Amino acid sequence: MRKGFLCGVYVLLVIIAFSPSGCGNGETIKIGTIKIGINAPLTGDIPKVGEGTKFAAQMWLEDIQAAGGLEVGGKKYPVELAIEDNESKAESAVKVNTKMITEDEVLVIVGPQASKQAVPAGGIANKYKTPMISPWSTNPDTTKDRPYVFRTPFLDPFQGPVLANFITEEFKFTKSAVLYDVASDYPKGLAEFFKKAWENLHGPGSVVAFESFTTKDADFSSQLTKITNSGAQVLFTPQYYNEVALIVQQAHQLGWKEPIVGSDSWGSAETVQLCGKDCYGLFFSTHYAAAGATGATKEFIDRYKAKFGYVPDDVAALTWDSLRIVQKAIQDTGELTGDLKKDRNRVRDAMGRIEKFKGITGEMTFTEEGDPIKCAVIVRISDAGEFEFYKSVCPTG
Amino acid sequence: MRAWIRTSTSAFSQVPLLGWLFGALIAVALEHLVGTPLALALGLPKIPVLFGFVIMLKKPILIPSAILYVLCIYVVPIGVTTRLSISRTNRLAAELFRSPIVISVAVHLALLYAILHMWAGINDYRLLVLKLTLIAIMVTLSLNVINGYMGEFSCSHPGFMALGAYGASVFTVVLFVDDRLFGAAILPPALGPFMFPIALILGGLVASLGALAVAIPSFRTRGDYLAIISLAFMFIVKSLIENLEFVRGPRGLSGQPDWANLPTVFLWTVICVWIINNFVRCTMGKALNAVRDNEMAAEAMTVNTRRTKIVAFLFSAFWAGVAGGLFAHVLGYVNPGTFGIQKLAEVLAMVYFGGLNSVYGAVVGAVSISLLGEVLRPLEIFKWIIIPLLLILVMIFRPTGLIAFKELNVTNLVKPKQNPDEEM
Amino acid sequence: MTFFFQNLVNALQWGSFYALVAVGYSMVYSILMLFNFAHGDIFMVGAYIGFGVSTALIALASSGAVVMPNWLILVLTILFSMFLTSFVGMIVERVGYRPLRDAPRASAAITGLMIGIILQTSTLALLGARRISFPSLIETTTYNVGGVFVTNKKIMIVLVSLLLALALHQFVRRTKWGMAMRAMAFDYATVPLMGVPLNTMVAVTFAIGSALAAAAGILFGVAYPVLDPYMGILIGWKAFVAAILGGRGSVMGATLAGFLLGFTEIFVVMIFPSTLRDLIAYSIILLILTFRPHGFFGEPYSARLRL
Questions:
Q1: CA distance C170 to chain A (A)
Q2: Do residues B109 and B232 share a domain?
């Protein structure tokens, strides 16, 4: 008798266990606040990137709070940020995205920054039909075949040719050398696109040295010796600013006198601070030029500088633009229904409808894939250590 | 107070494992049924995701509600049901115990799976954490074979995981996924889930093959030199994958199909625990311990040390490879940067926190470090001060880890804790 | 030919860092048979302390209170930082290692690893995420010797490293303290019975090891003036390789192994495509250890290794 009862209870429980769970999904949750998730690398390899993201997000939040909330369809909603640390790890970025989507119930996610986190995290966002915009990821895979994933920066396949063309036109060089980090996806990707573009212009073999090192290396002397001896006329190094300082100084100590050209990852105030006089006169491509900026860009830089004590990196500017795009998309929906699932879809649709957006990093037009088409800026580091606008290169066609 | 604790612990000491599982099942069922209303009634925004710790750290004002919630849903129901059903569950356990052990174990595992399934059913974040925890258990166990049972200090496990992850991913992506990299799927994707075990086994075999590079030098050396050999191996694997352009090098391989669902991961973990437990308890495991304690004496006692070492390395690497394959498919993405020094520190911490030479220890270590990492997330940076501090304290007070040198005896585990004939 | 000599110069500089960190590592390793996984992070802390000390000294000098030329500032920075960092080492030993003296070696290795993480995270939490530029104390002068470029910094770094290694070698060989250390490395259990104060000796060992790490950190700051909280991880692990390769209880062995590691990394890049650097460099190490399983100066494997 007792046994029968026990078995009955057990069977019942198993049925409950395996029945599709009815909690949480599709339930109407009253929207009091708009939650926006920030997936940033606060610890790990690139804490500075995480810091820039966090600061830009906080500044944006202040603006919204000062306005009394985000106005959607004539109603003001308070905004809440869920800033989570992805430790600069792919698995952690996935966990963070899942947590923000299912647990914190955010409307939109901004981040992750680096492609190695943005690619898997984008998969999660797409799976749960939550719009995500990565401010910094340049790998084409991040948004590819993912209707819910967007980005703010230009892509590597655009930046590589821009630089190759610029060097060719500016200096009339035909032989170049590349030094990049083989263990990091961004530099490697860009280095390869540059090489392809350069060889298209000057024929195979015109990249006379294609050298690499590994993340966290500090000594590049051997690679630079090879480059110096290769007869290259220009060195292209798409590295992060901490490595830029070391590369440029060591190159000069090894007798390298030709120009060194960089990419948007140079665009940090720390580049000059760490590198000093060695970097003066060098060129790199980026999203905006801090010195001589005008309008909204200058306003952003001045405010950021006043608040946090240094000129914002490109990450901060791009995060700011991403948040503004998110803000515009939310406002474009007209109203929030309170049904999270529906709202996420509406925000995605609104974001997909944005055709032109004038951000502080330039005017962008979005493609089908959710990638922006925007101009790159070539910046020269002046003799006062400031980033001077040199010229603007826009995509053709 | 102390007397009270003693009576209450003794009251629960007779609860068989079946009783605990039963209680936990009641608790998670309760959470399914009344979790949301209760949470809302207590002023919590929703069901606390990881036993209320996250919410406690984020909003200290909600600490009482979170504690109350955990009491209402977990502690009290488990306590009450286990206590009240002692005689029944013991009788049932005795009943099962008389039948073949396989049936008894299967019932326990089914109960355990039901609990995990319901617990993870509340929220997909829980599901992901659970899956990654189960994978961590596999890695920790396999590393325990080398570092615990064989007494070496091997640093190569991230390398084995990477080999397994890439082996399995290449297999599934090439065969079943339309992908820019490898072209169209060769076999119909519907066949995929049935071939998934083959992919994992393939990953494991690739890892075993790689393990030869560490196993062969281990014939002539051990201890410190083997530690750096294994470290060099880890660097080699990472660098090798970074240079393999057909798996996209450092940009990582994405697009793994979503076949690593909870039943699959659970099943593989159970198989892994079962096989490793049998492995370390059979003659081979004793041979491993003999090699650890005194290689020369072991040799003199006719233990074939070379064979023992090579088998241990290949076996351990195989399971690390399987875990790596599951890991890649849970995330749907894998890149060589994941399997570096950070991962090494993580798995070493799990092994030594839990305890050497013990299957229990590996499970405890993997679960506690994984959960701690998630629970302390709201502390941001300070998480990485608290977790190491905890580990140091554990090392100081229990230098061999929390539960070391304890055999997992399945028979003891499932047997009734009270003689059913003697009525209480 | 100049290409080869240029790389030789490069390798000398890079190897001297590995050597200096490995020697510090090897001090602790020899005596306690301990994997001091916190060593790389003590190196990092040393570099930061050096940054603090040199900034303070520069401020003092520029305020005009004391007249100090830059080379004096550098020397003082190295000395002060070595002194201060040695306390960090002793604290690490007291907190993390002493309670585990009789525990399995691997447990102590794990505490070391964890102390390392704490040091990294606290530096990050205290100083924020910005990277710090080490003040350039001496002006870089580049000499062109027949096509080979040598800087004054390079010469200084190699000389200071060799000098410190030699000084340590003499200390271990010639002094009473050194003799006690060697005795402990030989038989850890009996030496305390002969009246050698065990705790003091271990503390001194840690102090010396950490001071060397600090010196390496500052020289690193001079040569590669970008400091960040995670800079010690990779160097620490590589020094671990070098220290063990060099063999137990051998200052010269660790120095040579450090140089060997540096030379391997540089010359592999010289000969092979640089993308394959780690792959080839560590395969070489693996092969060396397969055929010489006890490193260069290590004792042959015996069953009495404590584990």
A1: 30
A2: no
**Rounded CA gap, A233 and C279, in Å?**
30
* Amino acid making up residue B84: L
* Sign of CA pseudo-dihedral B73, B75, B78, B79: negative
- Pairing mode, if any, of strands A70-72 and A75-77? antiparallel
Ramachandran region, residue A68 (left: φ > 0; alpha: ψ -120 to 50; beta: rest): left
Q: State the residue for tokens 């992919």.
A: B199
The CATH number that applies at residue C126 is: 1.10.3470
Average confidence score pLDDT of chain B: 87
Interface test with B, best of C102, C107, C261, C296 (most B CBs within 10 A): C107
Pull the structure tokens for residue A97: 């995205």
CA C115 vs. chain centroid, Å, equals 17
- Residue B420 belongs to a domain: no
Retrieve residue C189's tokens.
């259990």
Residues B211 and B244 in one domain: yes
Of B99, B121, B143, the one marking the end of a domain is: B121
| pLDDT band for position A6 (cuts 50, 70, 90) | low
Structural domain contains residue C178: yes
Strand ranges in B237-359 using DSSP code E only, listed in sequence order: 253-254, 333-334
Query: Which contiguous run of DSSP H or E holds residue A37?
Result: strand A34-40
Q: How many CB pairs under 8 A join A and B?
A: 132
B341 and C115 within 8 Å at the Cβ level: the answer is: no
* Distance of alpha carbon A270 from alpha carbon A288, whole angstroms: 16
Q: Flag whether B313 is in a domain.
A: yes
User: What's the gap in Å between the CA of C271 and the closest CA on chain B?
Assistant: 17
**Tens-digit pLDDT profile for residues A57-97:** 999 999 999 988 888 888 888 998 989 888 888 889 999 99
B62 with B142, same domain: the answer is: no
pLDDT score of A14 more than 60: no
Structure tokens given for C21: 């960190």
One domain for residues B227 and B316: yes
Q: How far is A254 from chain C (nearest CA, A)?
A: 5
CA distance C193 to chain A (A): 46
- ipTM exceeds 0.95: no
Please judge whether C305 and B296 are an interchain contact, meaning their C-beta atoms are less than 8 angstroms apart: no
For residue A4, give both structure tokens.
Answer: 């029968």
Give the range of the structural domain holding residue C36, as residue numbers without chain letter. Answer: 2-291
Residue C300 counted as domain residue:
no
In this predicted model, what pLDDT tens digit does every residue of B47-61 receive, in sequence order? 888 887 888 888 888
Q: Please answer yes or no on whether B125 and A98 come within 8 Å at the CB atom.
A: yes
Per-residue pLDDT tens for A334-372?
888 888 888 999 999 998 888 888 888 888 888 877 888
Identify the bridge partners of residue C67 per DSSP, sorted by sequence position. none
Q: Are residues B132 and B215 in the same domain?
A: yes
Where in chain A do CATH 3.40.50.2300 domains reside? 34-153+294-366, 156-286+378-393
Closest CA to B171 of B198, B193, B189, B194: B198
Q: How far apart are CA B86 and CA A2, in angstroms?
A: 13
H helix intervals, A90-155: 90-98, 115-127
Domain A156-286+378-393 fold is: Rossmann fold (3.40.50)
Which of C183, C117, C28, C21 lies closest to B224 in space, CA to CA? Answer: C28
- C-alpha C47/C-alpha C68 separation (Å) is 21
Q: Which domain holds residue B44?
A: 2-121
Of B71, B104, B121, the residue at which a domain comes to its end is B121
Question: Does B292 contact C307 at a Cβ distance shorter than 8 Å?
Answer: yes
Domain identity same for B222 and B309: yes
Q: Given 3.90.226.10, 1.20.58.760, 3.50.50.60, 3.40.50.2300, which CATH number is that of A34-153+294-366?
A: 3.40.50.2300
Asked if the Cβ–Cβ distance from A274 to C14 is below 8 Å, we say no
CB-nearest partner of A141 from B91, B254, B336: B254
